[in-house]
Amino acid sequence: xxxxxxxxxxxxxxxxxxxxxxxxxxxxxxxxxxxxxxxxxxxxxxxxxxxxxxxxxxxxxxxxxxxxxxxxxxxxxxxxxxxxxxxxxxxxxxxxxxxxxxxxxxxxxxxxxxxxxxxxxxxxxxxxxxxxxxxxxxxxxxxxxxxxxxxxxxxxxxxxxxxxxxxxxxxxxxxxxxxxxxxxxxxxxxxxxxxxxxxxxxxxxxxxxxxxxxxxxxxxxxxxxxxxxxxxxxxxxxxxxxxxxxxxxxxxxxxxxxxxxxxxxxxxxxxxxxxxxxxxxxxxxxxxxxxxxxxxxxxxxxxxxxxxxxxxxxxxxxxxxxxxxxxxxxxxxxxxxxxxxxxxxxxxxxxxxx
Length: 354
Ligand SMILES: [Zn+2]
Known about the structure:
CATH architecture: Alpha-Beta Barrel
Largest sheet: 9 strands, mixed
CATH superfamily: Glycoside hydrolase/deacetylase
Oligomer: single chain
Structural class: alpha/beta
Strand content: 5-15%
Bound molecules: zinc ion
Helix content: 25-40%
Number of helices: 11
């Protein structure tokens, strides 16, 4: 009897696998209204400053395992000091090369241990071992990797952060916003409490990435157990066509010039809250709209290589770098003026209602 295979056990599993049934929580699917997160009274509105803290690489070139540098790392100390002066606790979402830089770990670890910064995880799979996948556009989105490989890269990164920085990371962003159908359960397994990979209104599906055009900027629970909180990167539509924005924008990705035309006519503008490619006037419009929409939490972001001239398309010269700091000064002053206080990971976890 023992030699007869138990078909009744194996068949349903195989059938499910063939049908690609997704049963667990899935960040790629827009949330239902009942998933929206609520916060304790007096908490909202707040903002969280997130930094994609990563190696410098040529954003226009093909992905590479080793064509990168860490020249801006010493400048993290200046940015941290700037944040402390402004009373802001930044969340540094760090990836493999940063987590393996003793200098970065020293600067960020000291700030984190003093309660003046949070350390999170950012997975750039192409520079994160184990290296089993081919380097490609498709595989640059960690969520496209086989589940076991995405898991192994994530766990190794989390472990190296704990070992080298000395803190337990609670917040995650996929490099290139590239979560997949397994990411939510893997993040929960890794002890991550907050995901901030969703970039509403952006559609990366033409490169094989996620399509976020149906996602809101409002924080929401990814899972039924309320263990994984999603904090989408705040993106607002502005202009006469604002209510049609989520319909029009994705249809225009092949014609970027049209976006420029609509923007100049003040018909439609898509505004992420970042100094990279967004003026202070635009960002202020975005903040105003977010507050009009009663968004409880605004998520601001930018990339750490921008704090050193010459590494990103946005900061090419020392004058650009001065402008970047000016941008932050103006926007942080405006947030204070609008009574939007800064928050941090621990505060968010304490204030969110389960
Ligand atoms: Zn990145």
